[in-house]
Amino acid sequence: xxxxxxxxxxxxxxxxxxxxxxxxxxxxxxxxxxxxxxxxxxxxxxxxxxxxxxxxxxxxxxxxxxxxxxxxxxxxxxxxxxxxxxxxxxxxxxxxxxxxxxxxxxxxxxxxxxxxxxxxx
Length: 121
Known about the structure:
The radius of gyration is 13 Å and the shape is globular. It has a 5-stranded parallel beta sheet with strand order 2-1-3-4-5, with helices on both faces. 45% of the residues lie in helices and 17% in strands. It has one domain: Rossmann fold (3-Layer(aba) Sandwich). The protein has 5 helices and 5 strands; from the N terminus they run βαβαβαβαβα. 35% of the residues are buried. By secondary structure, it is α/β, with parallel strands linked by helices.
């Protein structure tokens, strides 16, 4: 899993929550979209947890590049914006497979369980 968020505290909290799970490996962390694209191409993660609002390159701007870099990865928007606000602000969530609000780590872990059980797009 690749965790992408410009806030180091959010990355830290997610990393700790995910590392408690023996079936989940955080292979990398990125602080912006540019770094995320580079790491996705190098690491080939199965899942990318992607913040929307970041400096340099937002999550939405990074989506098409992430799709090229890690075509089979499941991309989850992880944002403080609601899914409705995200859709309205961006017009679409093109390329993202799912959305989990920040602070809903249990929901994110449940989604990972569904992915591991074979649920895809």
